[in-house]
Amino acid sequence: MLVGGCDPHRHDLSTMTMLKDNHIWACAGSITKAVHAAKAAGGFSVKVEVECQSFEEADEAIAAGADVVMLDNFSGEEAGRCAGRLKDKWGRGERGRALVEVSGGLTEANVREYVNEDVDVVSTSSIHQGVKHVDFSLKVVPKGKGKEGDEGGKGESVEV
Which of 41, 50, 108, 146 gives a 20 to 30 Å CA spacing to 22? Predict the structure, then answer.
């Protein structure tokens, strides 16, 4: 994905905390409690993102200190309206309190419906779902063994 020019949500589980509905439910249904718990566990250097189903959830998440709010499964029109309201309340650009991301159901065919000046990030899994992977080996083989020493790997051997 990186080679193709896409940004991953995170490189590993330590680079950002993403709070989904299960995490909220585990905090008695409180987005505020979940964000505070995530901030306490992750420390000052870990960003917190909250998956939101409504303006009210996103608003609470930002008020609690979330760095990113993900508007999940909104229509393009709904996402644009919600993102605009959030930016009106919490600020835009460098002065904004949080990034607004849209996700859920976005594809190459409909992504234009979601892109506007108030949406900071569009995310989709459609660019990698169902894509056939390339099977290759990075096995290092001692000099002189050649392909016979590959022991069943499908990739090319490199002699060192």
Answer: 108
